[in-house]
Every structure is written in C-alpha cells, then in structure tokens.
C-alpha cells in the first residue's frame, strides 16, 4: 500500500541550493504526507495544517536532514509527533465526510473513495495509541521495529497495540454502522 500512498522513498539530488533541494522534496513528498496526515487526523483541513507545520520544521533543519539520510522518514516522524501533540491538546476527533480524501473521485472510483472513507471513520474510533500503530504498520507499511523507533515505544507495545487495534477494527466493520 505504500505505492498507493506515494510512499516511495524521496531522494533529493545534492548540489542545488538549500531552497532548490527543499522545494524538490516538497513536490516529491507532498501527496504522501497529506494522505498520511488525513489518515492520522481524519480531517483534510487539519491534515493540510499538519503538513504545513511539518514543512516549516523540516526547512529549519533542512541541511542536517538532507545530509543525514531519508528526509521522508524524518518528515513522517515530525508529522506523527505534531499529530500526537494535537491529540494531547484537544482530546477530540473529527470523522471525515465521504470523499474527503485528497483524490479526484469520478464515477469510476466512487466505491474506492467510499471504502477509504469507511477505513478513516473506523480508524477515528480507535484509541490514539492503537490508531498510530495501525496507520504506521498497515497504511505506511513500516515494520514493528520501525514503528517502535518512530513512536519511542517497545516492540512488544507495538505488537500489543496492533493486535488490539486490528481486533477493534474487525468489530467496527462487523457492526456495520459506518456511513
């Protein structure tokens, strides 16, 4: 599913100016980060704000980020951390309306949009910790070790949250009360 989210690793060609490199990164990673943010928060407007805040933080430390490795992984971690901070402040969740994912929905893919919306709604009903793990594991295709590293928790905790989150998602879909 990483390809569908645009999650192929983003490589920045060195040699340009700092601004040129950063703009290249923004263009290459924008769709991936926006879709990830929508899955994490369930609201396209808040998702855009999260991505903008992520890019602001990335720009401040761009030289180090670009030099030290994978800027997309760093951006994803910043995005998740910003979202966690938002959860801590608000403790409320918003469920998206059908078709809210940033994608053109024509008559030929309406069913896919409705299905994605159901997934976003179901994810919104999971507890915070379970949602983070499920999104990172399944929608961003990270390993348990990578998820543990990104969230600063143990692999055992990742496994526990994952198992409980998937079980709860099965219950939610079995209930069938998603719009």
UniProtKB/TrEMBL annotation:
SUPFAM superfamilies: Sigma2 domain of RNA polymerase sigma factors (SSF88946), Sigma3 and sigma4 domains of RNA polymerase sigma factors (SSF88659). One of its GO terms (molecular function) is DNA binding. GO terms for biological process: DNA-templated transcription initiation. The keyword Isomerase does not apply. InterPro entries: RNA_pol_sigma-70-like, RNA_pol_sigma-70_dom, RNA_pol_sigma-E_actinobac, RNA_pol_sigma70_r2, RNA_pol_sigma70_r4_t2, RNA_pol_sigma_r2, RNA_pol_sigma_r3/r4-like, WH-like_DNA-bd_sf. Gene3D superfamilies: 1.10.1740.10, Winged helix-like DNA-binding domain superfamily/Winged helix DNA-binding domain (1.10.10.10). It comes from the Bacteria. Residues 30-92 form the RNA polymerase sigma-70 region domain. Keywords: DNA-binding, Sigma factor, Transcription, Transcription regulation. Residues 117-169 form the RNA polymerase sigma factor 70 region 4 type domain. Belongs to the sigma-70 factor family. ECF subfamily. This is RNA polymerase sigma-70 factor (Sigma-E family).
């Amino acid at each position: 599913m990483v390809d569908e989210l645009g999650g192929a690793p983003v490589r920045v060609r060195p040699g340009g100016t700092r601004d040129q490199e950063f703009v290249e990164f923004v263009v290459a990673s924008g769709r991936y980060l926006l879709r990830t943010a929508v899955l994490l928060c369930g609201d396209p407007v808040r998702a855009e704000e999260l991505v903008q805040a992520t890019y602001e933080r990335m720009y401040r430390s761009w030289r180090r980020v670009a030099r030290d490795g994978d800027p997309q992984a760093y951006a994803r971690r910043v995005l998740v951390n910003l979202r966690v901070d938002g959860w801590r402040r608000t403790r409320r969740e918003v469920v998206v309306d059908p078709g809210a994912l940033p994608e053109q929905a024509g008559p030929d893919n309406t069913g896919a949009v409705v299905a994605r919306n159901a997934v976003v709604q179901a994810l919104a009903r999971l507890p915070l910790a379970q949602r983070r793990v499920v999104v990172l594991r399944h929608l961003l295709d990270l390993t348990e070790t990578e998820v543990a590293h990104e969230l600063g928790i143990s692999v055992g905790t990742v496994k526990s949250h994952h198992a409980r989150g998937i079980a709860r998602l099965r219950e939610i879909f079995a209930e069938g009360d998603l719009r």
